[in-house]
Amino acid sequence: MNKAERERSRLQREQIRRRNLRIIKLLGIGVLVIIAVSLFASALSGFVSSSEDQNSSSGQLNISIASSVSVAPDPTPLPEPEDPRLSDPLLVLVNSENPLPENWQVTPKTIAGEEQVDQQAYEDLTALLAAASESEVTLWIASSYRSVDLQQEILDRAVQNRISQEGMTEEEALEDALRTINRPGYSEHHTGLAVDFNDVSDDFEETEAYRWLEEHAAEYGFVQRYKKSKVKSTGIDNESWHYRYVGKEYAQEMERLDLCLEEYRDYLKSHPKSA
Ligand SMILES: [Zn+2]
After folding, report:
1. Rounded to whole angstroms, what are the CA distances from 141 to 49, 148, 215, 243?
2. Alpha carbon 157 to chain centroid distance?
3. pLDDT tens digits, residue range 152-186?
């Protein structure tokens, strides 16, 4: 091999080496590109999957909200179906805590001359008075239906009297008057279903008329509303003269169970009529 041949073969080797280097470079670039692409792809898939996670986690959020809504205890549980007797107007409760219902309607009927009662009580009260009379028992109606307006007039007059005659302040006069006069709207007489008999005094309890009522009032749908034994439930002292019409069926059951109206309503709540 001469010098020229050696030079040629050296150049050829040099060319091969350079070509190989190029190939290696290209391969390296190719590998780098592949790595870069796969990294990008995996980053992209990571992004996609993380956004899926976000979706699914927000989905979980939705589910947990939905489940918390369905699992959380209902703040206002549906009330037990109420015994229909409790909304019977005959059993309406009007006392110091329960005013006359706003939609209450009285259809006043004049009885025994000048007093008025609601028509629901009229027939049975007429029969009661007739039966008492037949038994030669002296019984008359001292007071029955009283409108809220009339009660207000009575109270206003009592307050004015105390201010002008006894020198009380308006506040003192009102407080004093409310000891004996029901606050307007809170008297059972507004219902048209309450009746005061005879002279409206404690002495009534000693009369033959009272004994007759004890025995017969329930037969005509009336109950003594404020008894000595029920002061705790009614909040009102014994009133032997004040009777309340509830109808024969309720009156006789209240009598049998020895329950006043407050107690009887509680009894109906705990013993609802089965449908
Ligand atoms: Zn009364």
Report:
1. 89, 20, 18, 11
2. 37
3. 999 999 999 999 999 999 999 999 998 888 899 99
pLDDT at 264 over 60: yes
Ligand 1 centre to CA of 254 (Å) is 19
Question: Which stretches of the chain are DSSP H helices?
Answer: 3-71, 119-134, 148-166, 170-177, 208-216, 231-234, 248-257, 261-270
Pick the CATH number of 84-146+187-270 from 3.30.420.40, 3.30.470.20, 3.40.640.10, 3.30.1380.10: 3.30.1380.10
CA of 271 to the centre of ligand 1 (A): 29
- What is the whole-number distance in angstroms between the Cα of residue 243 and the centre of ligand 1? 7
Length of the chain: 275
Average pLDDT over all residues of the chain? 83
239 carries an active-site annotation = yes
Using CA atoms, how far apart are residues 264 and 223, in angstroms rounded to an integer?
A: 12
How far away, in angstroms, is 195 Cα from ligand 1 center? 6
The active-site residue out of 239, 249, 255, 262 is 239
